[in-house]
Design brief:
Blueprint: H1 33-42, H2 45-49, H3 68-86, H4 90-99, H5 108-118, H6 125-136, H7 150-157, H8 162-167, H9 169-172, H10 174-181, H11 187-211, H12 216-219, H13 223-235, H14 241-271, H15 276-281, H16 290-308, H17 311-333, H18 350-360, H19 363-376
Helix pairs in contact: 1-4, 3-4, 3-11, 3-14, 4-7, 4-11, 5-17, 7-11, 11-14, 11-16, 13-14, 17-18, 17-19
The structure holds magnesium ion.
Length: about 375
Amino acid sequence: MINGLASYAAKPEESLGRVFAEPQEPTLSGRNPFQRDRDRIVHSAAFRRLEYKTQVFLNHEGDHFRTRLTHSLEVAQIGRAIARRLHLNEDLVEGIALAHDLGHTPFGHAGQDALNACLKDGFEHNLQSLWVVDELEERYPTFNGLNLSFETREGILKHLSKKHLTQHRKWLGQLGDRFIEGHQPSLEAQLANIADEVAYSNHDIDDGIRSGLLDMEHLSSVKLWQTHLNHVHDLYPELTGRRLRHEVIRHIIHQLVDDLVNYSKNLLQQHHPTSIHEVRLLPPLIQFSPSIQAEVTELKRFLFKNLYRHPQVVAKTEEASTQIHFLFGFYTTHPNEIPEHFYQTDVSNQPRRIAHYIAGMTDRFARREYIRFSAITPNQSS
Ligand code: MG
């Protein structure tokens, strides 16, 4: 083990590098490439906009609901805690976690579905996150985007449909090869992906109960919840309300993290990768045990059916969808309403440029633009 990193961890000095060559890394403030990536993400405009983007509940519905920003911070916290125990690269996990949702549209999944329907070539938030860090951020004198390391970009891209792979083969380069060859990304990328799942499955229970759309009785059909509720009742028989909810959720997160660490350790021992290169050729090694995986799946199904498809959430998302459709149509007929300086690199593909512009919007900016423009062109709002 070198610098606390296992042989299978991503090593900054072995990074596959950046698209645009930059001065030797160690000379710049003593930060390694993955630390610099993380810092670039935190300083980006897209990262700041996460504060006003919906996770599940629309941003203005309450001050305590998660936003994309607080969700991303929770993913980073959970991801780093697991990385430390597995001797993986914490900085890389943190960078991927903080950037993983940069491509999300305003209004959560409703926004993504609406943009996907508007674009002939389709819209996909993982690819959009990569677009943000590769192209859309304007911070450097000589290149677009943040020029992140290969390993960070690989973690951000996560999944890719065949359609998008074919369309963007040239841009994706080596990043696309993995999908053709069926290889895995780094363990850090695998971990960030599961940390996302742990974070949202738990904070959506919390936000769901807080909003009144879920109740604890309702959740008793979910094994993961009921097991820990019983346990917390035994420990603190008097506990009720929000402290009870928080304690149960804390216990669930603990168990999920412990299970993930222990089961992944077993898989790592079994397959014994000695480098990140070997990791790529093996099956996914960051995994829950099969029994816990089944319980997580049950919880996710419950949330899908009872929270994400709750009539009140659906009504809000339909409203959001109308607004996104309107804005796309409006900018198509009024392209001059997009700020002139906005992403001039590919002006020939106007629909994509419009999608980039809308995807970057916060909930409140999208709503404001919708109100402003639908007042002057009311016939387009239907
Ligand atoms: Mg996420």
